[in-house]
Every structure is written in structure tokens, then in C-alpha cells.
């Protein structure tokens, strides 16, 4: 009746809820993640969930492509799709842009004339701006600053993250801040040469879903092999059905309890349920043996109760952990092994030899 009720509950709810966000499997507590998000917002740090990757044959090529993207990114920021972006070109212009800015500086004669005109009628000494004119003249002759020329520790550390060599070429990472419309950002960058947009959350969720889909055929194959082994060893289809019935009931009730508690099942719960199935199979095989007398029956029951007590102590401690991942394992296995003991006893039922 309990197993039937659990089946009906899951049927009414359309099955258990699945957690497809791989980020939910993080061992970091929710309070720490919330604090991290708050600090990132206050510091204006980029979002870790979305990245644009710019490819180029050289550092210069990457910087020029990032500069070409700046008007597009500025427009997205003005429209509210994103807040801002962190990229290497914002910290260090390309050599081409630096030369263009140098070319825009006036020559010495033009600058001297403009300075003279600007200070006309003002109480400045004739040579007050001579140092400024010398600096502009020197700037016109400077070689462009390359990433390797940046020696300031903080700036170099930021550039090393945003501009990296890879496979004979270079990659530039564009990290947006305050992404409010990821789809809009992805559409804007789609199809641009040398630019790839990566939604890390979406990709990891797709990976988790792929792992889950790949696991089901393997689980089905393992279950079929177990049934064949049971048939070969027990040589009694009815006993095999009783053994499998106890395990199935334990798994159904465990999933129903987790569902009632609002837990979304993940790969971690799937692995834990496999452990429960294995433990339940051990219990069921002990119970399914033909017992010689009442003393052996009692000894079998005492032994299995002791095993379950040890499992509950071990995984019960895990269920009290603050780490979500460990807590999920503990709760699933603790509920599962307790259910497995009861249901395998009721289904497999130790029989006394006559």
C-alpha cells in the first residue's frame, strides 16, 4: 500500500522534479554564493556565467577585433541588455589605435602656436607650458605599448587573464557585467568572424542533461544483467520477483519522500539511488534465503538491522552537513536504506524450511 501510494504521488506530480542546472551541485553553501554575488555587484566585477571569446593570429589582431566590437557592446549597454564589459582593449589599445592617436597629436609648431593663443592675456610665464609641449613631442615619437611592455602588477594580472595565447594563436576574453538579456547578447555576437559567445550556465546544464540521458541506458543494462544473475542463482522466478519488488518499492518511496520535501533530483541523487539499490539487493538476498529455523531467521534480521543502523549513522551525519552536495547524498541514502530494510523484509520475507 505504501509503495502504491508513492507511485500514485509521483504519477500525480508528473514524476520527480529534475535539477538540470549543474551549478546547483556546487559544494558552496547558498549563503556564500549570495555574498559572492553581492560583492561582485558592489565591485562591478564581470559575470562568471557569460563570456565572448575573440580569436586572432596575434595579440594585435585580437585587440583590433575587440575594438571593432566596442560600438556594438556600447549600444547593448545603452539599451540595457548588459551593464558593461571587461576586455583587454579597454585596458590597452591596439598598436594601430595608438598610432592613430599619436598622429592626431599636433606637431611642435602647431602646438606652440595653439598654446601661445590659449595663454594670450593670461598671467602665465612664456615658458610655463614648455614641459607640456616637450611631453607631446615625445609622445608622438614613442613606440606603441605592447602587452609584454605592461609591468604594473595589477594591470598585468588583468591583461594576462583577458588576453591569452592558445594553440599558436591568441584568445581575447570579453566578460560582460550585469547581463540582463543573455539571448540579446548572444544574437548580437552570433555570426561575427572570430567571435564565439559562450553561456557557461547553459553549456553546463546541457552537459548535465547529456550525462543523465547517457546514464539511463547504462542503468537499464545493469538492471537487466542483475535480473539474469538473480534468475541464474535463485532459479525461482517468484523469489526473483519478490527480491526486485522490495528494491523497487524502496526506490519509489525514497524518490517520493524527496519529491515531497521539494528536492530536485540531480546526478548526485541518481548515483545515491544506485547505491540504495545495491544495498537493497544485499538485504533482499539475505531475506530470500530459506531459513533453517527461527533462530537463524532472528540472527539474519539482527545482522541486517545492525547494518542499517551503521548506514544510518554514517549517512545520517552527512545529511546534517551544510554542504548541499553532501547533504543530498546523506538524505537520499539514509531514507533509502531504511526503506530498503523494511520493504525487502516485507517482499522477500524470510521463509523457514519445512
Would you write up a description of this structure?
With 354 residues, the protein is of the alpha+beta class. 65% of the residues lie in helices and 9% in strands. It is built from 14 helices and seven strands. Strands 1, 2, 3, 4 and 5 form a five-stranded antiparallel sheet that branches. A two-stranded parallel ribbon has the order 6-7. Strand 3 (163-166) and strand 4 (169-177) form a beta hairpin. It starts with a helix and ends with a strand. The mean pLDDT is 84.
Give the terminus-to-terminus CA distance: 30 Å
Count of discrete alpha- or pi-helical segments spanning 4 or more residues: 14
Q: Look at the helices and sheets and give the structural class.
A: alpha+beta
Approximate strand percentage: 5-15%
Provide a brief overview of the structure.
The protein has 14 helices and seven strands.
Topology, element by element:
Layout: H1 2-12, H2 30-43, E1 50-56, H3 59-78, E2 84-86, H4 88-91, H5 95-104, H6 108-118, H7 130-141, H8 153-162, E3 163-166, E4 169-177, H9 182-189, E5 195-199, H10 200-234, H11 237-260, H12 267-288, E6 290-291, H13 294-318, H14 324-348, E7 351-352
Parallel strand pairs: 6-7
Antiparallel strand pairs: 1-4, 1-5, 2-4, 3-4
Helix pairs in contact: 1-11, 10-11, 11-12, 11-14, 12-14, 13-14
Amino acid at each position: 500500500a505504501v509503495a502504491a501510494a508513492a507511485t500514485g504521488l509521483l504519477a500525480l506530480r508528473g514524476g520527480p522534479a529534475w535539477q538540470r542546472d549543474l551549478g546547483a551541485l556546487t559544494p558552496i553553501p547558498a549563503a556564500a554564493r549570495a555574498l559572492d554575488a553581492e560583492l561582485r555587484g558592489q565591485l562591478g566585477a564581470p559575470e562568471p556565467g557569460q563570456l565572448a571569446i575573440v580569436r586572432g593570429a596575434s595579440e594585435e589582431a585580437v585587440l583590433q577585433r575587440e575594438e571593432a566590437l566596442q560600438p556594438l557592446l556600447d549600444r547593448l549597454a545603452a539599451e540595457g541588455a548588459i551593464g558593461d564589459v571587461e576586455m583587454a582593449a579597454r585596458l590597452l589599445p591596439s598598436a594601430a589605435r595608438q598610432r592613430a592617436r599619436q598622429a592626431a597629436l599636433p606637431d611642435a609648431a602647431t602646438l606652440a602656436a595653439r598654446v601661445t593663443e590659449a595663454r594670450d592675456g593670461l598671467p602665465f610665464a612664456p615658458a610655463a607650458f614648455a614641459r607640456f609641449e616637450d611631453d607631446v613631442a615625445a609622445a608622438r615619437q614613442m613606440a606603441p605599448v605592447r602587452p609584454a611592455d605592461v609591468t604594473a602588477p595589477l594591470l598585468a594580472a588583468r591583461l594576462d587573464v583577458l588576453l591569452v595565447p592558445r594553440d599558436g594563436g591568441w584568445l581575447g576574453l570579453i566578460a560582460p557585467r550585469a547581463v540582463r538579456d543573455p539571448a540579446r547578447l548572444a544574437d548580437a555576437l552570433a555570426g561575427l568572424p572570430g567571435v564565439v559567445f559562450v553561456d557557461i550556465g547553459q553549456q553546463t546544464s546541457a552537459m548535465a542533461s547529456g550525462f543523465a540521458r547517457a546514464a539511463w541506458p547504462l542503468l537499464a543494462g545493469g538492471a537487466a544483467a542483475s535480473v539474469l544473475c538473480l534468475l541464474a542463482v535463485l532459479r525461482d522466478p517468484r523469489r526473483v520477483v519478490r527480491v526486485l519488488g522490495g528494491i523497487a518499492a524502496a526506490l519509489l518511496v525514497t524518490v517520493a519522500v524527496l519529491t515531497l520535501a521539494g528536492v530536485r533530483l540531480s546526478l548526485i541523487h541518481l548515483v545515491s539511488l544506485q547505491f540504495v539499490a545495491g544495498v537493497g539487493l544485499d538485504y533482499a538476498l539475505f531475506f530470500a534465503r530459506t531459513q533453517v529455523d527461527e533462530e537463524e531467521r532472528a540472527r539474519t534480521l539482527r545482522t541486517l538491522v545492525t547494518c542499517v543502523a551503521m548506514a544510518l549513522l554514517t549517512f545520517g551525519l552527512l545529511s546534517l552537513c551544510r554542504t548541499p552536495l553532501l547533504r543530498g547524498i546523506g538524505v537520499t541514502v539514509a531514507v533509502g536504506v531504511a526503506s530498503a530494510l523494511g520493504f525487502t523484509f516485507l517482499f522477500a520475507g524470510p521463509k523457514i524450511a519445512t
